[in-house]
Amino acid sequence: MSFSIVVFQGPSASGKSTLQARLGVPKIVTWTSRQPRAGEQDGVDYHFATREQIELMFRQGLMLEMSEYRNNLYGTSISSIEDAGKDGQVRSTVMDAPGAKLVKDKWGDRVLLIGVLADREQLAKRLFDRKVSIAEQEQRLLSYDQEKSALSACDLIIHNSEGQLRTAEKVIDFIREGITHATRP
Ligand SMILES: Nc1nc2c(ncn2[C@@H]2O[C@H](COP(=O)(O)OP(=O)(O)O)[C@@H](O)[C@H]2O)c(=O)[nH]1
Ligand SMILES: Nc1ncnc2c1ncn2[C@@H]1O[C@H](COP(=O)(O)OP(=O)(O)O)[C@@H](O)[C@H]1O
C-alpha cells in the first residue's frame, strides 16, 4: 500500500508550506479559530470557525486532536484523515509535532512524515522579513527547540536553510514522482 497522507512538521518558518505547495497534492483542510489572513479562503486554507465550534466538535468526538497555538485553536477532523486516499488521491497537511505524532501513531505506514528544518538564525530573519511583531517572533522561536527535537519521529528530514531550497524542492519532486508512480493503476 502506498502513502495516502503526507504530513509536514517542523519549526515555524522552516518552509513547510512552501514545500507542501511544491508537492502539489490536495490539502487536508484543518480547523482554526484564528482570523483568516488576506487571500485565505474558508474551506480551502482552513475551515475557519469559532473557538466554541471547534471545542464542541472535539467533545462530540469528531476531532482527532485539538491544539492551542498563539491563543488560537487548531484541529484536524478524524473524517478528513480517514477519507484521505479513498479516491486514490494522496493528500498533505502541515501540523505541529504533537498533532503529527498522533496521525503517525494511528495511521502508521499510510503516513509519510516529513520534517523540515532550517537554522534558527535564518528562521528569525524570515519571520522578521514577514514583518511579524517582535513578540510574535519570540513566541514562534520559543517552540523552535521543541519542534527541532521532535523531528526524530519523522520518516525523513529535509534541510531548508538559505541556499538549500532548490535541493529541498528536488527532494519533494522525487517524492511526488514516487507517490504518483505507486498509486498509478
Ligand atoms: N496540531 C495541529 N496543528 C495545526 C493544525 N492546522 C495547522 N496547524 C499548525 O498550526 C500552526 C500555525 O499555523 P498558521 O496559523 O497557519 O500560521 P503559520 O505559523 O504561519 O503557518 C502551524 O505550525 C501549523 O502546522 C491542526 O489541525 N492541528
Ligand atoms: N530555503 C529557503 N531560503 C530562504 N527563504 C525560504 C526558504 N524556504 C522558505 N523560505 C521563505 O521563508 C518563509 C517561511 O516559509 P513557509 O513555507 O511559510 O514556512 P512554514 O510553513 O514552515 O511556517 C516564506 O517567506 C518562504 O518563502
UniProtKB/TrEMBL annotation:
<dbReference type="InterPro" id="IPR008145">
    <property type="entry name" value="GK/Ca_channel_bsu"/>
</dbReference>
<dbReference type="InterPro" id="IPR027417">
    <property type="entry name" value="P-loop_NTPase"/>
</dbReference>
<dbReference type="GO" id="GO:0005829">
    <property type="term" value="C:cytosol"/>
</dbReference>
<dbReference type="GO" id="GO:0004385">
    <property type="term" value="F:GMP kinase activity"/>
</dbReference>
<keyword id="KW-0418">Kinase</keyword>
<dbReference type="Pfam" id="PF00625">
    <property type="entry name" value="Guanylate_kin"/>
</dbReference>
<comment type="function">
    <text>Essential for recycling GMP and indirectly, cGMP.</text>
</comment>
<protein>
    <recommendedName>
        <fullName>Guanylate kinase</fullName>
        <ecNumber>2.7.4.8</ecNumber>
    </recommendedName>
</protein>
<feature type="domain" description="Guanylate kinase-like">
    <location>
        <begin position="3"/>
        <end position="180"/>
    </location>
</feature>
<dbReference type="InterPro" id="IPR008144">
    <property type="entry name" value="Guanylate_kin-like_dom"/>
</dbReference>
<keyword id="KW-0808">Transferase</keyword>
<comment type="similarity">
    <text>Belongs to the guanylate kinase family.</text>
</comment>
